[in-house]
## 1
Amino acid sequence: MYNSTDPRASLATAKAGPAASEFAAAEYLKFYESAPQLDDASGRTWLGRGQNFVIAYSEARPGATFSRTAQIDEYVVLLQDPEASATISWQGSTQTVPGYSIAFVPPGDSTVTMPAGGRLVRMFTTRSDDLSAACANADAYSEPHPNIPPFVAWPEPRDGHRVRSYSLDVPAEPGRFGRIFRCTTFMVNCLPAEPKPRDITKLSPHYHDDFEQCSLALTGSFTHHIRWPWTPNLNAWRADDHELCGSPSIAVIPPPAIHTSRAMEDSGNQLIDIFSPPRVDFSEKPGWVLNADDYPMPGAAA
């Protein structure tokens, strides 16, 4: 169902058919409409989750620090704004990460400092129990959602853990979809900014059999169109969603719902797609994952 010009039309999974018989609702967390879960000297932080992931969106004050003690697994630091740099400390070493970058922070003790403040997005797995419990929609996952297998982390980097950062200043290439980075716990696709509303004749309705998608809106607004399959059991049917979400916000799209997102603003729109753990189908496409040499796929030779 992808448009013929969409690079994802070549994915093997694009032709699979959903076989689920029960479905979860989508989750929409409009941070701009709600109070933050944390409000302290470091700034304001909103927390929302899916089954496997927690998104922490912060408006950091100058000099803000965000520390994790005995962090159970690798997490993501996204610095979307060029002027919002960070220093990341881990195991006695400190690295400066410029704005407009993505970084992966290993397990253990770490601190992210924002010297000038600004927007900071961190992504954790729900194995971080303290953050999972603090999410605005924690109750929605009191029972595991259907169609999603248990989380399994991907292999560690070939040369061991360290803080790794990558610039988002990556030019587009024909046939490559977005700007995709992965680590042991996440895959993050920093999609191209859409300067104006999306052409409604070139949408990309599609579905995933067995993983959630988190769509993080950082600029502008998006309408998330979601349709669930019909089954023989009418009790399992769900009405379509056509949810307008401004920024900042997250939409958590459950499998195997058909979905597509439409940019809405004339002044610019920025969406980030997030998956936990990483996607196999994207990883199998040569050249799509920009840091694939650092993080092997499951079953890859050491």
## 2
Amino acid sequence: MKKLLALLIFCTAGFAADAQSSNPTYNKTLADSLGADDYGMKSYVLVVLKTGTAKITDQARVSELFRGHMDNIGKMAEAGKLVVAGPLGKNDKAYRGIFILDVKTLDEAKALLQTDPAVKAKLLDAELYEWYGSAALPVYLPVHGQIEKIRP
């Protein structure tokens, strides 16, 4: 029985060692430039935007704040702080959209969100979460700029 157990442990250890292997197409320069760890991943802050608490009835003011929101998205993306943004479909939680911010801390993300006029005016509120994802996320934005026919 001891021999069988030892053989089972040896075989399992062999499979575990084989489960991870080096990537023959690994590009250290690219990985380092994107801040990737050994798994090609890094930490971000995920922001879930939801309907805020402000009750603004002046539609011109609401339009102005949301135009500022869209402009701010562009500024954060240009600065390399925003890597993903987009609206959510209708839902029962009043969630409106998401951001994935390329920042190190929740406090840095909170400060960055205060540059958004719609967030600052409480038309949008934000829930923030630490998130671990592909370090390659920032490189899709230049490609997107080449495929969007109309800008919002």
## 3
Amino acid sequence: MLKPTRLIERPEMWLAGFAFYGDPFQLRGGWDEENEIGRLWQRFGRFCAEQPGSLPSALEPGTGYEVHIQHLETGERGEYEVFVGFQVEPEAGIPIQFSLKRLPPAQYAVFTLRGAEISADWDAQISAWLAEAGWVSDFGFNLQCYDARFKGMQDLADSEVDVWVPVRRSGE
């Protein structure tokens, strides 16, 4: 079972980027550059490369985030929102093609995935740890942090990714 590497407190975060809503695995399953998540990252990367003068300053250059957001339909249809982007100041001017997401202040359980763990079904393992340790997921989202430790899809074996899950004690 996966266990968190640490618990952290974070103030609100503002992310600028692109979003997708639906079943991201409808075309291709798992970790694949051709499923909707992979295509979203490609579209985001292409825009950033082609329009660098229109981008706001990243608060953490070289770090990207992927947010999985549950909606009311998620349990019924398996559809949810995926947002990819980078952290910005809330008043940053963003291009019209971008969306802006505000993540609330939260305590996060941080799970560091290495190698094959990155493409495994870690959601179930994280849920099991939360239940066993007396925590519940808060706010209905999780956040994946891609920094210099992520070497790309072609080199997952040597990569690390942090998954941040907003948590609170059960019963609070």
## 4
Amino acid sequence: MNEISTPPSIIVGIDGSRAAIQAALWAVDEAVSRDIPLRLLYAIEPEIAKVPPDRAARKLAIAENAVRYAFTALEASEKPVKIEVEVVQDRAITALIRASASAEMVCVGAVGLHHIRPDRMGSTAAALAVSAHCPVAIIRGDNRRTGRQARWVVVDAEGSGDTDVALEAAFEEAQLRNAPLRAVARSVNGDSDCRIEVALDRRLERCRQSHPDVRVESAALRCGLLTYLEKNGRSVQLVVVSARNREHVEQLVGPMGNSVLHGAGCSVLVVDHQHS
């Protein structure tokens, strides 16, 4: 018997938190640009033991209210997006990873209802960043342009050519959000800044040709990525990193990274997941 394939969509994890609403609003442009639905996914944590019917009904009502609130916020954006809703009985991380198998992207708030400290990322977001089957966006703040100057999209271009997937994703995000793009890599083993930037420019050339409207520059870092973001985070709206660079992903989604990026309202997009 042939399996019924699930049409592609942008998935947003909804849990009733303000962070989830911000993630949904950020994700609208992703869905509109691809002409695919935006699906709001709420996971009701299953009970270990049998519970009274009124408790199960109360949990379902909470889920429906959270989804309705998100739906209303999206409608208020007045953007031409088809909104789908799904409420499942499952652990949130399990439901989102399963949904990621057929999704174009999964978007979640950096901090959910049960993780309100700025130095602590929601465990669901952190686990999803490394376990999903598609790009994962972890959203902080509303990421709207403030003032006259758009905030940067920064792409971590450190490493071998496999991070070119991250470069392409970063160009697409910069174009979608009408933002300038900066590709960064750390200077190591005595390499000069000029040599690093020339190498970056060479890798950027193909993407430049397919995205001629994106203003892009390269930069060699004398410090680590997290230190750079600590100094410049308020001018950055989104950091794009390859899932293959596990060290940088773990830094960005871990406690230190969340503490650094929280105040700046800087989001993270993890791409290039490889799963068998």
